[in-house]
Specification:
Blueprint (H helix, E strand, L loop, with lengths): L4 E7 L6 H15 L4 E5 L5 H8 L6 E4 L8 H15 L5 E7 L14 E6 L3 H13 L1 H4 L8 E9 L2 H7 L9 E2 L3 E2 L19 H53 L15 H8 L11
Parallel strand pairs: 1-4, 1-5, 2-3, 2-4, 5-6, 6-7, 6-8
Helix pairs in contact: 1-2
Length: 288
């Protein structure tokens, strides 16, 4: 994928505001940040895709593909990656909406810069989020590859004090906590007609713009970290390997065995050169 910023918005449960965040975050980048934005809806209900297609057009490229829930892991991964490749070359920002299924391999998460996991503050949904985060901790804590940044997105928040206190529970994986997407009784009225970033209600509009700005900052931080990884590690690794290779070649060139079979400068006969190339325990018969 060649998009500058690749964002996966996922969760194991429905009804946590995942599609709402996906559609409106795409609108934020397209309308507020003036970025060429693509939305890939991998969710079987395609709610985010329907919202984008039916609301006032903002130039968001949107495609929906069937859910990978009933496919084998290889086919599911191939299908998802193909959908992402279809839109990525034309996008500055790529957003994928997916209800996570274990048919997809965990390595799929490495295809993204940010992984946003919306969750309400109910105990059931928090437990599900906690299980998901801890299960894929090896991805987010990876030292072998640049891991995506994990962002927990409190959605449909009513009480800010509850929001700030509830995340004191123990996570085994480091994560970023985004500004909350606040609950608003009129939010459902925007579905398929308007986006939060263009809402007449200033509370709805400004709340989501604050959330979007936080995502932009995390995206910039991830981009800078990936550049540092390339500049710090790749040249050193390449140089080290090349230096060792050259040193080895020079050493071989300066300490060549006199009787080697490929030493064509000496005056040995072909039979003698062939004999010299054989291990002692194989030298028998006419080569003795």
């Amino acid at each position: 994928m060649t998009a500058k910023l690749k964002i996966l918005i996922t969760s194991q449960k429905g009804g946590v505001g995942k599609s709402t965040v996906s559609a409106n975050l795409a609108a934020f980048f397209a309308h507020h940040e003036h970025q060429k934005t693509s939305l890939v809806d991998l969710d079987h209900q395609a709610t985010a895709g329907k919202w984008v297609r039916n609301a006032d057009p903002l130039g968001i490229q949107c495609i929906s593909v069937s859910s990978p829930n009933n496919k084998g892991s290889g086919l599911a991964l191939l299908q998802a990656k193909q959908a992402l490749r279809t839109v990525a070359p034309d996008a500055d920002v790529l957003i994928a909406d997916l209800t996570w299924t274990d048919i997809l391999p965990a390595e799929f998460l490495f295809d993204f810069d940010l992984v946003l996991v919306p969750t309400s503050l109910s105990r059931v949904e928090l437990d599900s989020t906690l299980e998901f985060v801890n299960r894929f901790g090896f991805v987010f804590n990876s030292n072998m590859r640049t891991p995506p940044k994990l962002v927990i997105v409190p959605s449909r928040v009513v009480n800010l004090e509850t929001y700030s206190n509830v995340f004191l529970q123990s996570f085994n994986t480091g994560f970023f906590l985004s500004p909350p997407v606040m609950f608003n009784e009129s939010a459902s009225e925007y579905f398929g007609t308007e986006f939060f970033v263009k809402a007449q209600d200033p509370d709805v509009r400004e709340n989501f713009i604050d959330f979007g700005r936080a995502v932009v900052q995390l995206g910039n931080a991830q981009s800078n970290e990936k550049k540092k990884t390339v500049s710090l590690y790749q040249p050193k690794m390449t140089s080290s390997i090349l230096d060792r290779f050259r040193a080895g070649m020079n050493e071989k060139a300066s300490i060549r065995p006199v009787n080697a079979a490929n030493d064509f400068n000496n005056k040995q006969s072909l039979q003698d050169r062939m004999k010299a190339a054989l291990p002692a325990f194989l030298r028998s018969g006419s080569y003795k």
